[in-house]
Amino acid sequence: MREDFLHYLWKFKKFDFLEAKTTDGEEIVISAVGIHNQLSGPDFFNARLKIGNQLWAGNVEIHLKSSDWYAHQHERDENYENVILHVVWEHDVDIFRRDDSPIPTLELEKLVDVVVLEKYDLLDSQNKNWINCEKSFPEIDQFQVEHWLERLYFERLEERAFLITDLLEKSGNDWEAVLFQLLAKNFGLNINGEAFLNMAGSFDFKIVKKNISNKHTLQSLFLGQAGLLEGGYEDVYFQDLRKTYQYLKHKYSLDNSGVIKPKFFRLRPDNFPTIRLVQLAEIYASEQNLFKEVTHPTDLLKLVKKFQVEVDGYWLTHYNFGREHRARRKKTTPKFINLILINTVIPFSFVYAQKMGGSVDKVAEIARKVLAEENGVVSKFYQLRPDLPADALHSQALLHLKKNYCDKNKCMECELGINLLRTN
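Predicted structure:
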Protein backbone atom coordinates (compact mmCIF):
# COMPACT_ATOMS: atom_id res chain seq x y z
CA MET A 1 0.00 0.00 0.00
CA ARG A 2 1.15 3.53 -0.80
CA GLU A 3 0.31 6.89 0.69
CA ASP A 4 -1.36 8.08 -2.49
CA PHE A 5 -4.10 5.49 -1.86
CA LEU A 6 -4.70 7.01 1.57
CA HIS A 7 -4.83 10.44 -0.09
CA TYR A 8 -7.55 9.07 -2.35
CA LEU A 9 -9.48 7.62 0.59
CA TRP A 10 -9.40 10.92 2.43
CA LYS A 11 -9.98 13.20 -0.57
CA PHE A 12 -13.08 11.33 -1.73
CA LYS A 13 -14.15 10.13 1.74
CA LYS A 14 -13.95 6.50 0.64
CA PHE A 15 -14.19 5.18 4.18
CA ASP A 16 -16.90 4.95 6.82
CA PHE A 17 -16.56 8.61 7.79
CA LEU A 18 -19.79 8.47 9.84
CA GLU A 19 -17.93 6.20 12.24
CA ALA A 20 -14.72 8.23 12.18
CA LYS A 21 -13.18 8.73 15.61
CA THR A 22 -9.76 9.68 16.86
CA THR A 23 -7.59 7.04 18.48
CA ASP A 24 -8.69 8.62 21.77
CA GLY A 25 -12.34 7.92 20.94
CA GLU A 26 -13.48 11.45 20.00
CA GLU A 27 -15.99 11.73 17.16
CA ILE A 28 -14.77 13.40 13.94
CA VAL A 29 -17.17 15.32 11.69
CA ILE A 30 -15.65 16.30 8.34
CA SER A 31 -17.00 19.56 6.88
CA ALA A 32 -14.22 19.92 4.29
CA VAL A 33 -11.33 17.54 3.54
CA GLY A 34 -9.18 20.46 2.39
CA ILE A 35 -7.18 21.25 -0.74
CA HIS A 36 -4.85 18.49 -1.94
CA ASN A 37 -1.26 19.74 -1.83
CA GLN A 38 1.08 18.22 -4.43
CA LEU A 39 4.14 20.14 -3.20
CA SER A 40 6.08 20.12 0.06
CA GLY A 41 4.24 20.59 3.33
CA PRO A 42 1.08 19.00 4.75
CA ASP A 43 -0.95 16.86 2.34
CA PHE A 44 -4.22 18.81 2.60
CA PHE A 45 -4.63 22.52 3.32
CA ASN A 46 -7.55 24.33 4.92
CA ALA A 47 -9.57 21.37 6.12
CA ARG A 48 -12.56 22.04 8.40
CA LEU A 49 -13.36 19.48 11.08
CA LYS A 50 -15.21 19.04 14.32
CA ILE A 51 -13.35 16.85 16.78
CA GLY A 52 -15.40 16.15 19.86
CA ASN A 53 -17.02 19.48 20.69
CA GLN A 54 -14.23 21.58 19.16
CA LEU A 55 -14.32 23.13 15.67
CA TRP A 56 -10.97 23.12 13.83
CA ALA A 57 -9.65 24.75 10.66
CA GLY A 58 -6.19 23.79 9.44
CA ASN A 59 -4.14 21.16 7.67
CA VAL A 60 -4.24 17.37 7.45
CA GLU A 61 -1.18 15.15 7.16
CA ILE A 62 -1.38 11.54 5.93
CA HIS A 63 1.00 8.63 6.55
CA LEU A 64 0.93 4.85 6.42
CA LYS A 65 1.96 4.67 10.09
CA SER A 66 1.79 7.27 12.85
CA SER A 67 5.52 6.82 13.48
CA ASP A 68 6.23 8.16 9.98
CA TRP A 69 5.63 11.59 11.50
CA TYR A 70 8.89 11.23 13.39
CA ALA A 71 10.64 9.32 10.59
CA HIS A 72 10.03 12.39 8.38
CA GLN A 73 11.00 14.74 11.24
CA HIS A 74 7.79 16.75 11.03
CA GLU A 75 8.02 17.49 14.74
CA ARG A 76 10.95 19.81 13.87
CA ASP A 77 9.26 21.52 10.92
CA GLU A 78 7.19 24.64 11.57
CA ASN A 79 5.22 23.98 8.36
CA TYR A 80 3.42 21.21 10.24
CA GLU A 81 2.47 23.29 13.26
CA ASN A 82 -1.02 23.87 11.90
CA VAL A 83 -1.85 20.18 11.38
CA ILE A 84 -5.20 19.52 13.05
CA LEU A 85 -5.51 15.82 12.17
CA HIS A 86 -3.07 13.02 11.41
CA VAL A 87 -4.68 10.41 9.12
CA VAL A 88 -2.93 7.02 9.08
CA TRP A 89 -3.57 3.46 8.01
CA GLU A 90 -2.00 2.03 11.15
CA HIS A 91 -1.64 3.85 14.48
CA ASP A 92 1.52 2.70 16.24
CA VAL A 93 2.54 5.73 18.32
CA ASP A 94 1.08 9.00 19.61
CA ILE A 95 2.48 12.14 17.96
CA PHE A 96 3.05 15.67 19.25
CA ARG A 97 3.81 19.13 17.90
CA ARG A 98 6.97 21.02 18.73
CA ASP A 99 5.31 22.44 21.86
CA ASP A 100 4.44 18.88 22.95
CA SER A 101 0.71 19.34 22.35
CA PRO A 102 -0.89 16.12 21.00
CA ILE A 103 -2.21 15.88 17.44
CA PRO A 104 -5.46 13.91 17.01
CA THR A 105 -5.06 10.78 14.90
CA LEU A 106 -7.59 9.00 12.66
CA GLU A 107 -6.82 5.35 11.88
CA LEU A 108 -8.38 4.17 8.60
CA GLU A 109 -7.56 0.46 8.67
CA LYS A 110 -10.91 -0.60 10.15
CA LEU A 111 -13.00 1.98 8.29
CA VAL A 112 -12.35 0.94 4.67
CA ASP A 113 -14.59 -1.59 2.94
CA VAL A 114 -12.81 -4.78 1.92
CA VAL A 115 -14.18 -4.39 -1.64
CA VAL A 116 -12.34 -1.08 -2.02
CA LEU A 117 -9.13 -2.76 -0.87
CA GLU A 118 -9.62 -5.58 -3.36
CA LYS A 119 -10.07 -3.07 -6.18
CA TYR A 120 -6.92 -1.27 -5.13
CA ASP A 121 -4.97 -4.53 -4.99
CA LEU A 122 -6.06 -5.30 -8.56
CA LEU A 123 -4.95 -1.86 -9.70
CA ASP A 124 -1.68 -2.01 -7.80
CA SER A 125 -0.33 -5.01 -9.74
CA GLN A 126 2.50 -3.24 -11.56
CA ASN A 127 4.73 -6.31 -11.54
CA LYS A 128 2.24 -8.29 -13.58
CA ASN A 129 0.98 -5.93 -16.27
CA TRP A 130 2.33 -3.38 -18.76
CA ILE A 131 0.19 -0.79 -16.99
CA ASN A 132 -1.63 -1.35 -13.71
CA CYS A 133 -5.10 -1.12 -15.25
CA GLU A 134 -4.23 -3.12 -18.38
CA LYS A 135 -7.10 -5.56 -17.90
CA SER A 136 -9.63 -2.83 -17.15
CA PHE A 137 -8.43 -0.15 -19.57
CA PRO A 138 -10.39 -1.53 -22.58
CA GLU A 139 -13.62 -1.43 -20.58
CA ILE A 140 -13.47 2.13 -19.26
CA ASP A 141 -16.23 4.37 -20.56
CA GLN A 142 -15.22 6.03 -23.84
CA PHE A 143 -16.32 9.49 -22.73
CA GLN A 144 -14.22 9.30 -19.57
CA VAL A 145 -11.16 8.16 -21.52
CA GLU A 146 -11.59 10.95 -24.09
CA HIS A 147 -12.07 13.56 -21.38
CA TRP A 148 -8.96 12.50 -19.47
CA LEU A 149 -6.76 12.20 -22.57
CA GLU A 150 -7.69 15.70 -23.71
CA ARG A 151 -6.68 17.03 -20.29
CA LEU A 152 -3.42 15.10 -20.49
CA TYR A 153 -2.69 16.45 -23.95
CA PHE A 154 -2.78 20.03 -22.70
CA GLU A 155 -0.79 18.96 -19.66
CA ARG A 156 1.87 17.66 -22.07
CA LEU A 157 1.79 20.94 -24.01
CA GLU A 158 2.26 22.85 -20.77
CA GLU A 159 5.25 20.65 -20.01
CA ARG A 160 6.79 21.39 -23.41
CA ALA A 161 6.05 25.07 -22.99
CA PHE A 162 8.87 25.33 -20.42
CA LEU A 163 11.56 24.95 -23.10
CA ILE A 164 9.88 27.46 -25.41
CA THR A 165 9.39 29.98 -22.60
CA ASP A 166 13.04 29.58 -21.60
CA LEU A 167 14.18 30.16 -25.20
CA LEU A 168 11.96 33.23 -25.39
CA GLU A 169 13.55 34.73 -22.30
CA LYS A 170 17.05 34.07 -23.58
CA SER A 171 16.25 35.58 -27.00
CA GLY A 172 14.55 38.71 -25.66
CA ASN A 173 11.12 37.48 -26.83
CA ASP A 174 12.25 36.97 -30.43
CA TRP A 175 9.50 34.58 -31.52
CA GLU A 176 10.97 33.93 -34.96
CA ALA A 177 14.34 33.05 -33.47
CA VAL A 178 12.70 30.63 -31.05
CA LEU A 179 10.74 28.97 -33.85
CA PHE A 180 14.01 28.49 -35.75
CA GLN A 181 15.73 26.99 -32.70
CA LEU A 182 12.82 24.65 -31.99
CA LEU A 183 12.66 23.56 -35.63
CA ALA A 184 16.39 22.94 -35.64
CA LYS A 185 16.14 20.85 -32.47
CA ASN A 186 13.45 18.64 -33.93
CA PHE A 187 15.20 18.32 -37.30
CA GLY A 188 17.99 16.73 -35.27
CA LEU A 189 15.54 14.18 -33.83
CA ASN A 190 16.60 12.34 -30.66
CA ILE A 191 20.26 11.79 -31.55
CA ASN A 192 21.19 15.30 -32.67
CA GLY A 193 18.37 17.38 -31.18
CA GLU A 194 20.52 19.07 -28.54
CA ALA A 195 23.40 19.60 -31.00
CA PHE A 196 21.09 21.26 -33.54
CA LEU A 197 19.49 23.42 -30.83
CA ASN A 198 22.96 24.39 -29.68
CA MET A 199 23.90 25.32 -33.25
CA ALA A 200 20.73 27.36 -33.83
CA GLY A 201 21.29 29.36 -30.67
CA SER A 202 24.95 30.08 -31.40
CA PHE A 203 24.26 33.07 -33.66
CA ASP A 204 21.77 35.91 -34.04
CA PHE A 205 18.70 34.90 -36.03
CA LYS A 206 18.96 38.23 -37.86
CA ILE A 207 21.74 36.64 -39.90
CA VAL A 208 19.24 34.11 -41.24
CA LYS A 209 16.75 36.88 -42.04
CA LYS A 210 19.39 38.92 -43.89
CA ASN A 211 20.26 35.92 -46.06
CA ILE A 212 16.81 34.36 -46.19
CA SER A 213 16.67 33.94 -49.97
CA ASN A 214 20.20 32.57 -50.39
CA LYS A 215 20.12 28.81 -49.95
CA HIS A 216 23.87 28.41 -50.40
CA THR A 217 24.61 30.97 -47.69
CA LEU A 218 22.18 29.34 -45.25
CA GLN A 219 23.70 25.92 -45.88
CA SER A 220 27.15 27.35 -45.21
CA LEU A 221 25.93 29.02 -42.02
CA PHE A 222 24.18 25.97 -40.59
CA LEU A 223 26.82 23.41 -41.58
CA GLY A 224 29.67 25.68 -40.56
CA GLN A 225 28.28 26.55 -37.13
CA ALA A 226 27.59 22.85 -36.55
CA GLY A 227 31.28 22.10 -37.15
CA LEU A 228 30.62 20.09 -40.30
CA LEU A 229 32.80 22.18 -42.61
CA GLU A 230 36.03 21.11 -40.97
CA GLY A 231 38.47 18.67 -42.53
CA GLY A 232 40.40 18.44 -45.79
CA TYR A 233 37.81 17.36 -48.32
CA GLU A 234 38.79 18.25 -51.86
CA ASP A 235 35.19 18.48 -53.14
CA VAL A 236 34.71 21.76 -54.97
CA TYR A 237 31.33 22.17 -53.30
CA PHE A 238 32.78 21.59 -49.83
CA GLN A 239 35.51 24.14 -50.49
CA ASP A 240 32.92 26.63 -51.74
CA LEU A 241 30.75 26.17 -48.66
CA ARG A 242 33.71 26.54 -46.33
CA LYS A 243 34.85 29.70 -48.13
CA THR A 244 31.38 31.20 -47.74
CA TYR A 245 31.29 30.22 -44.09
CA GLN A 246 34.69 31.82 -43.43
CA TYR A 247 33.33 35.02 -44.96
CA LEU A 248 30.22 34.84 -42.74
CA LYS A 249 32.33 34.06 -39.72
CA HIS A 250 34.42 37.16 -40.27
CA LYS A 251 31.48 39.43 -41.21
CA TYR A 252 29.26 38.49 -38.27
CA SER A 253 31.96 37.59 -35.72
CA LEU A 254 30.66 34.03 -35.48
CA ASP A 255 32.03 31.59 -32.93
CA ASN A 256 31.24 27.89 -32.95
CA SER A 257 33.91 26.76 -30.51
CA GLY A 258 31.33 25.79 -27.89
CA VAL A 259 28.81 24.19 -30.25
CA ILE A 260 28.08 20.47 -29.80
CA LYS A 261 29.13 18.61 -32.94
CA PRO A 262 26.37 16.40 -34.43
CA LYS A 263 26.73 12.62 -34.62
CA PHE A 264 26.50 10.31 -37.62
CA PHE A 265 26.88 7.05 -35.70
CA ARG A 266 23.89 4.66 -35.83
CA LEU A 267 21.85 6.98 -38.03
CA ARG A 268 20.17 6.04 -41.26
CA PRO A 269 21.74 8.08 -44.10
CA ASP A 270 18.52 10.07 -44.62
CA ASN A 271 18.87 11.30 -41.03
CA PHE A 272 22.51 12.31 -41.33
CA PRO A 273 23.01 15.79 -39.84
CA THR A 274 24.32 17.08 -43.17
CA ILE A 275 21.07 16.18 -44.94
CA ARG A 276 18.82 17.47 -42.16
CA LEU A 277 20.62 20.82 -41.96
CA VAL A 278 20.51 21.24 -45.74
CA GLN A 279 16.76 20.52 -45.64
CA LEU A 280 16.34 23.08 -42.86
CA ALA A 281 18.18 25.63 -45.00
CA GLU A 282 15.91 24.74 -47.92
CA ILE A 283 12.81 25.50 -45.83
CA TYR A 284 14.04 28.93 -44.77
CA ALA A 285 15.21 29.78 -48.27
CA SER A 286 11.89 28.89 -49.87
CA GLU A 287 9.22 29.77 -47.28
CA GLN A 288 8.93 33.47 -46.54
CA ASN A 289 5.70 33.17 -44.50
CA LEU A 290 6.68 30.26 -42.29
CA PHE A 291 6.25 32.13 -39.01
CA LYS A 292 2.77 33.37 -39.90
CA GLU A 293 1.60 29.91 -40.95
CA VAL A 294 2.90 28.30 -37.77
CA THR A 295 1.48 30.90 -35.38
CA HIS A 296 -1.92 30.96 -37.07
CA PRO A 297 -2.50 27.32 -38.06
CA THR A 298 -5.77 27.02 -39.95
CA ASP A 299 -5.05 24.71 -42.86
CA LEU A 300 -3.19 21.48 -42.19
CA LEU A 301 -2.36 20.89 -45.86
CA LYS A 302 -0.73 24.32 -46.12
CA LEU A 303 1.33 23.55 -43.05
CA VAL A 304 2.45 20.22 -44.44
CA LYS A 305 3.51 21.82 -47.73
CA LYS A 306 5.75 24.25 -45.83
CA PHE A 307 7.89 21.33 -44.76
CA GLN A 308 7.82 19.35 -47.99
CA VAL A 309 11.35 20.00 -49.26
CA GLU A 310 14.09 17.97 -50.88
CA VAL A 311 17.76 18.49 -51.53
CA ASP A 312 19.24 19.18 -54.96
CA GLY A 313 22.57 19.57 -56.70
CA TYR A 314 25.51 18.14 -54.80
CA TRP A 315 23.30 16.48 -52.20
CA LEU A 316 21.53 14.30 -54.75
CA THR A 317 24.68 12.19 -54.90
CA HIS A 318 26.05 12.71 -51.37
CA TYR A 319 24.98 12.03 -47.80
CA ASN A 320 28.20 13.49 -46.50
CA PHE A 321 31.25 15.19 -47.96
CA GLY A 322 33.73 13.11 -49.89
CA ARG A 323 31.50 10.08 -50.50
CA GLU A 324 29.56 10.03 -53.74
CA HIS A 325 26.76 7.61 -54.57
CA ARG A 326 24.21 7.11 -57.33
CA ALA A 327 21.73 9.99 -57.57
CA ARG A 328 18.87 9.62 -55.12
CA ARG A 329 16.06 11.94 -54.04
CA LYS A 330 16.23 12.95 -50.39
CA LYS A 331 13.05 14.65 -49.28
CA THR A 332 11.25 15.15 -46.01
CA THR A 333 8.94 12.18 -45.65
CA PRO A 334 5.32 12.34 -44.43
CA LYS A 335 6.38 10.58 -41.21
CA PHE A 336 9.15 13.11 -40.58
CA ILE A 337 6.84 16.05 -41.31
CA ASN A 338 4.34 14.53 -38.91
CA LEU A 339 6.97 14.61 -36.15
CA ILE A 340 7.77 18.24 -36.96
CA LEU A 341 4.10 19.17 -36.67
CA ILE A 342 3.75 17.27 -33.38
CA ASN A 343 6.97 18.39 -31.73
CA THR A 344 7.44 21.90 -33.15
CA VAL A 345 4.45 23.49 -34.82
CA ILE A 346 1.73 22.52 -32.35
CA PRO A 347 3.66 23.25 -29.11
CA PHE A 348 4.98 26.53 -30.53
CA SER A 349 1.55 27.71 -31.72
CA PHE A 350 0.10 26.69 -28.33
CA VAL A 351 2.55 28.88 -26.42
CA TYR A 352 2.11 31.71 -28.92
CA ALA A 353 -1.68 31.58 -28.48
CA GLN A 354 -1.28 31.60 -24.69
CA LYS A 355 1.11 34.54 -24.65
CA MET A 356 -0.64 36.59 -27.31
CA GLY A 357 -4.21 35.99 -26.19
CA GLY A 358 -5.17 33.65 -29.02
CA SER A 359 -7.33 30.52 -28.92
CA VAL A 360 -5.71 27.25 -27.88
CA ASP A 361 -8.78 25.42 -29.23
CA LYS A 362 -7.40 25.80 -32.76
CA VAL A 363 -4.25 24.03 -31.61
CA ALA A 364 -6.34 21.06 -30.48
CA GLU A 365 -8.19 21.08 -33.81
CA ILE A 366 -4.90 20.81 -35.70
CA ALA A 367 -3.68 18.06 -33.35
CA ARG A 368 -6.83 16.05 -34.09
CA LYS A 369 -6.06 16.23 -37.81
CA VAL A 370 -2.42 15.16 -37.55
CA LEU A 371 -1.76 11.42 -37.64
CA ALA A 372 -0.73 9.68 -34.42
CA GLU A 373 2.96 9.25 -33.70
CA GLU A 374 4.18 5.72 -34.33
CA ASN A 375 6.08 4.03 -31.51
CA GLY A 376 5.84 1.02 -29.22
CA VAL A 377 4.02 2.75 -26.37
CA VAL A 378 1.33 4.23 -28.60
CA SER A 379 0.89 0.95 -30.48
CA LYS A 380 0.36 -0.94 -27.21
CA PHE A 381 -2.35 1.47 -26.08
CA TYR A 382 -4.10 1.16 -29.45
CA GLN A 383 -3.99 -2.61 -29.11
CA LEU A 384 -5.79 -2.28 -25.80
CA ARG A 385 -8.26 0.30 -27.16
CA PRO A 386 -8.65 0.07 -30.97
CA ASP A 387 -11.54 2.53 -30.67
CA LEU A 388 -9.22 5.43 -29.79
CA PRO A 389 -8.81 7.99 -32.61
CA ALA A 390 -5.40 7.60 -34.28
CA ASP A 391 -4.44 11.27 -34.17
CA ALA A 392 -1.64 13.34 -32.62
CA LEU A 393 -3.76 14.59 -29.73
CA HIS A 394 -4.45 11.08 -28.51
CA SER A 395 -1.01 9.63 -29.19
CA GLN A 396 0.72 12.47 -27.34
CA ALA A 397 -1.72 12.19 -24.45
CA LEU A 398 -1.08 8.45 -24.24
CA LEU A 399 2.69 8.99 -24.15
CA HIS A 400 2.20 11.49 -21.33
CA LEU A 401 -0.10 9.08 -19.50
CA LYS A 402 2.43 6.23 -19.66
CA LYS A 403 5.46 8.29 -18.67
CA ASN A 404 3.97 10.52 -15.99
CA TYR A 405 1.28 8.33 -14.47
CA CYS A 406 1.50 4.62 -15.35
CA ASP A 407 5.28 4.27 -15.04
CA LYS A 408 5.23 6.19 -11.74
CA ASN A 409 2.25 4.22 -10.38
CA LYS A 410 0.25 7.42 -9.92
CA CYS A 411 -3.06 5.64 -10.30
CA MET A 412 -4.57 7.73 -7.51
CA GLU A 413 -3.79 10.90 -9.46
CA CYS A 414 -5.15 9.47 -12.71
CA GLU A 415 -8.80 10.06 -13.50
CA LEU A 416 -9.05 6.59 -15.02
CA GLY A 417 -7.54 4.89 -11.97
CA ILE A 418 -9.81 6.78 -9.61
CA ASN A 419 -12.81 5.94 -11.78
CA LEU A 420 -11.95 2.23 -11.66
CA LEU A 421 -11.94 2.30 -7.87
CA ARG A 422 -15.27 4.07 -7.89
CA THR A 423 -17.14 1.94 -10.40
CA ASN A 424 -15.62 -1.56 -10.74
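Summary: The chain has 17 helices and eight strands.
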